[in-house]
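no rush on this but wanted to send it before i forget. what follows is a protein written twice so to speak, once as letters and once as structure tokens for the fold. mainly i need to know what kind of three dimensional shape the backbone takes. thanks a lot i owe you, the record is right below.
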Amino acid sequence: MTAEWFREPGPEIVLIDGEYHATSAFRIRFSDDALPILTVSYTGVLTRDAAGAIAFTR
């Protein structure tokens, strides 16, 4: 079985208690048509590492 991932519009970025929280959503379609299309999301905190690059944690 295979799965295809489709990114939804976003990410949504919100400032909470001095931290930037980002949420990205995806729809997943499986090659087995008997399985439903799923929507999943990932949420984490945006930070900068020692070199100044943006990092996604949690």
